[in-house]
């Protein structure tokens, strides 16, 4: 299984090589993190009376979705961010477009719901305009991954011994 661990690093992991103790630890840690992430949006500040009950409901909803075979479910903040660079840029472009075209709607939303609304609208925009955004995003990723021309010109050659 190819596992993206951040910073563009991917490791090929063979889960069959883990003994039962390591396997159980990974399962406990991974499930705990997924379920903690699922209920993190339910805070005492947002709902002092019912935040613990709401946390339980969100965690149970996430567990039920995993039992049903669904890995990623949109909670309060919307879908998980993409991991490939082109999709990340598509989402960035979609957010800018949504902020420009839906400024009034976003401004009218309660402060604690604006990010969720922005994410929802940006994801919808990204899906609806994928073809147009993808070609632009691909060019941006290519440009962002190249060193600056000025840096290339001033780079000193490495002396080899």
Plain-language structure description:
The two termini are 40 Å apart. The chain has 161 residues and is mainly α. It contains 7 helices and 2 strands; from the N terminus they run ββααααααα. The radius of gyration is 21 Å and the shape is flat. The chain has a two-stranded antiparallel ribbon. It has 2 domains: 1-76, no CATH class; 78-161, no CATH class. The longest helix is centred in the first third of the chain and has 20 residues, at 20-39. Helix 1 (20-39) packs across helix 2. The model is unreliable at 73-78 (pLDDT under 50).
Explain briefly what this protein structure is.
The protein has 161 residues and is mainly alpha-helical.
Number of domains: 2
- The number of E-state strands comes to 2
Mean pLDDT: 82
Q: Quaternary state, please?
A: single chain
Choose one word for the global shape: flat
Count of DSSP H/I helices = 7
Q: How do the strands line up in the largest sheet?
A: 1-2
Strand fraction equals 5-15%
In angstroms, what is the radius of gyration?
21 Å
Major sheet: size, sense and barrel closure?
2 strands, antiparallel
Q: Give the low-pLDDT segments.
A: 73-78
Q: Which descriptors would you attach to this protein?
A:
single chain; two-stranded antiparallel sheet; 161 residues; 2 domains; flat
